Amino acid sequence: MRAPTVEAARRALAARLKAAAMESAELDARILTGHALGLDLTGLISAAQRELTSDESARLEAFMRRRLAGEPVARIIGEKEFWGLPLRLSAATLVPRPDTETVVELALELLRAGGDLNRPLRIADLGTGSGAILLALLSELPAAHGFGTDISEAALQTAAANAARSALSDRATFVACDYAGGLSGTFDLIVSNPPYIRSADIAHLAEEVRNHDPLAALDGGADGLDAYRALIPQAAGLLAPGAALVVEAGEGQSGPIQALMTSAGLTPATAPKADLAGIPRAVAGHKMAR
């Protein structure tokens, strides 16, 4: 019996994923086939009629079983693109999501309103995980130096590897601490995507999140706001006059987060910025200039 061609294998995988009601079956099949064979889109097209080797078939079969079991494609291939940067993942890091790019967008808008983006800046990302937000900002701020903190040493190792991969290591420093606990000096911008899922809601998350993202990066306590209560006062004490704190928020949390910022002496920098679904996703507070 002849081995399937690359194209036939891709189509068969897409059909299996569709039958399992996977929403992005065609895209998943293309990505997984390409990863199993070490081919990009152009390579998949040019190799469409080549027969798979036995090793390639076994690798693709293993990927299919993992995907059908609910493992996200990004976990299977070990990386995810964020803000145009290819980021490695680990068991200690969240899969970066498009919603989080809203935080980057708002942070850049606020910095742009305050002056030239080419000026020297000192920025921090609290709970950096894979380094996604920090590295996205550094890629847009050529004279900035960034500090990424995380309580997880494994996450910091992943973030440092991503900084090296993006040629940003010379402007990124990673610190093991709880939010801003290990930082000193003043900052022109602080950002964070902390855990904000209510503890009781964890069991109802999508399987891809519930079973594969680290619980510590999801669970925000009884009301989802525990992390904000810790990090907002810390950040407020480190912001330079006129500087901003920008955080990601869960649905329905922007108001309570703004109240926590006000209590810490910050003023609303702008209205919360909505993600593509219309949910207020990025919340910012300014430290008033003296």
TrEMBL record:
EC nos:
2.1.1.297
Residues forming the Methyltransferase small domain are 122-201
Q: Which InterPro entries match?
A: DNA_methylase_N6_adenine_CS, HemK-like, N5-glutamine_MTase, PrmC_N, RF_methyltr_PrmC, SAM-dependent_MTases_sf, Small_mtfrase_dom
Q: Which residues form a coiled coil?
A: none
Recite the UniProt keywords alphabetically. Methyltransferase, S-adenosyl-L-methionine, Transferase
Q: Does the keyword Methyltransferase apply?
A: yes
Q: What CDD domains does this protein map onto?
A: AdoMet_MTases
The positions annotated for binding S-adenosyl-L-methionine are: G127, T128, G129, S130, G131, D150, N193
Instruction: Please give one Pfam family short name.
Output: MTS
Q: Which residues form the Release factor glutamine methyltransferase N-terminal domain?
A: 9-78
Reaction catalysis annotation:
L-glutaminyl-[peptide chain release factor] + S-adenosyl-L-methionine = N(5)-methyl-L-glutaminyl-[peptide chain release factor] + S-adenosyl-L-homocysteine + H(+)
A biological process (GO) annotation for this entry?
Answer: methylation
Role noted for this protein: Methylates the class 1 translation termination release factors RF1/PrfA and RF2/PrfB on the glutamine residue of the universally conserved GGQ motif.
Under the heading HAMAP family, the entry gives: RF_methyltr_PrmC (MF_02126)
| Family in the record | Belongs to the protein N5-glutamine methyltransferase family. PrmC subfamily.
UniProt-recorded name of the protein:
Release factor glutamine methyltransferase
The record lists the organism as Bradyrhizobium retamae
- The organism's taxonomic lineage, starting at the top: Bacteria, Pseudomonadati, Pseudomonadota, Alphaproteobacteria, Hyphomicrobiales
